[in-house]
Amino acid sequence: MPAEFVPSACPHDCPSTCALEVERLSPDRIGKVRGAAANTYTAGVICAKVSRYAERVHNPNRILKPLLRTGPKGSGQWREIGWDEALDRVAEKFLEAERTHGPEAVWPYFYAGTMGLVQRGSIQRLRHAKGYSRQISTICDTPANMGWMAGYGDIRGSDPREMAESDLIVNWGGNPVATQVNVMTHVARARKARGAKLVTIDPYRNGTAEVSDLHLMLRPGTDGALACAVMHVLFREGFADRAYLARYAAGVERLEEHLASRTPEWAAAITGLAVEEIVGFARLYGQTTRSYLRMGYGLTRAHNGAAQMHAVSCLPVVTGAWQHRGGGGLYCSSGIYRIDRTLSEGLDRLDTSVRGFDQSRIGAVLTGEDITSGPPVTAMLVQNTNPAAVCPDLTRVIAGLKREDLFVAVHEQVMTDTAALADLVLPATMFLEHDDLYRGGGQSHILIGRKVVEPQGEARENHWVNGEIARRVGAEHPGFGMTAWEIIDAMLTASELPDAATLAAERWYDAQPDFETSHFLKGFAWPDGRFRFAPDWAALGPYGGCPDLPDHMPPGRGTDAEHPFRLFTPPARQFLNTSFTDTETSLAREKRPTVLIHPDDAAGLGIGDGDLVRLGNRQASVALHAELFDGIQRGVLAVEGIWPGSAFVEGVGINALTSPRSIPPAGGAAFHDNAVWVRKA
Description:
Distance between the termini: 57 Å
Number of helices: 25
Strand order of the largest sheet: 5-4-17-16-15-6
Structural class: alpha/beta
Strand content: 15-25%
Helix content: 25-40%
Number of strands: 27
Largest sheet: 6 strands, mixed
């Protein structure tokens, strides 16, 4: 067959959800992957990782047949079996767990390896149809969602394409050069057309900071203090839009009184920034009518993450930037979609009285700490995630997965750390090998990705695997008897959106609301229509502990004499969580796990560039190599990327150091909130 480019959509856990064009060379082989130029957000630009997707689809390390463990867990000893035997074994173990302990002994576990609504959601349909233990999904965006919701009441914001019409774009807590390249497309347009300025606020000189006009390099976990000091200056120097505040916000007088003591001097001592930096940024922000605040997840992955998100999100309200095109801001667009997931996730079978476990605390669940009632978890199906690398308190996660009385089936594309600990590994399709439906997080499009090529080897889609397990364990739901394409069509129809055939023909549907809705000019999403400077945190989650008003909430693990360094773990440019850690080009460019350390700190510890060092806390210690780096404050360390354990000298990954303690008010994983010691190994 002649080569041709066919439309698709990127499935990965990235806000861009790029519209793609994929070169199909033959029924089972792809070539080039490019961004769709006609999509007004993607605008023809995609990241290098996805542009090399042929390397991933045709990776020689792909799992191509079901594998049954024949030696001890983690031994790497397997034998190939057929699909019928593999599925029969999964069903047998699930039914055995149910007979012995009841259905709650089975815990299906998933997350964001694909963001496709059908393939990702099908494991939920299996869970709900059988009454298996529920999953409370917290590991990524819960703190950010709660922090934004606290003030706004809904998760939406200015059209991200409006950045091209801005005079100032503030990139706070993100690194879009590495993690959401399309943001930079619209920033470049604003710079060229309007002479716009780009400001990055982040604890280290990342790729975006390097190309910014201003970089505020604060200490990790101090964003709330900076936001309060900026608001102090805005009120003090007349940049607060009092007419806008009187109409759209609640508790303004109380906020201003509270901020009187949150001076730049106060914040400088907390953040490590100079007073002049804080005041200069506050004036720049206050003087710029079209200021666009693009918030990332980075500042929320700490025990004070939700509180920090709320504090920073107050800024465009204080200045009234929401009134202007190119003004306001965005954290996530998820609230603009009204896609009915009842069929795909089996929500009509959801029983909230069934116990639920926090996915971020999988180690505590599998080792019994979080089992306060009911049976232990004795059977699992893992899809779309790699908890043995990505979850906090890895030592305990791995110990739990190694339990001899726990059956674990992993449906996966390559041999991840989690798959290596499984009893049974099932080969999974990649996004170009099945049908699915996607929606953007940092943009506004709903997209269909049709199957482009036939699956490699015996790989099977999630929807099919979950349906086959359901049939064997007696789970009943209409969705199990439908194809993925039929579910997509039914979901779209139920959501009053264009049907599947129409959407596929048109390639995408733009769900961005009108300007007034996007900018909250019809009121914020609360009964009184007003932004909340003083949130009702108790209504958002059970954990409490967030400040009544925007403030500096100390990080969860403070430094001390024994643990004098703050460690955070931002994304690596060539990886996406643990995706792409198995592709040759990404590995060659990232080289090896390293810890970035300020040269003065390194000198004081006798550490040279490239030396093997050890980081540790009361949970664990990790050995890796040092890289001297002056784009970070003293007393701060950064380790980029979630590398597989095998990449580390001792086989122990960086999340062994991450605390499993939940982030208030509703949970989450504090990846950037670690206090550690460091010494030469």
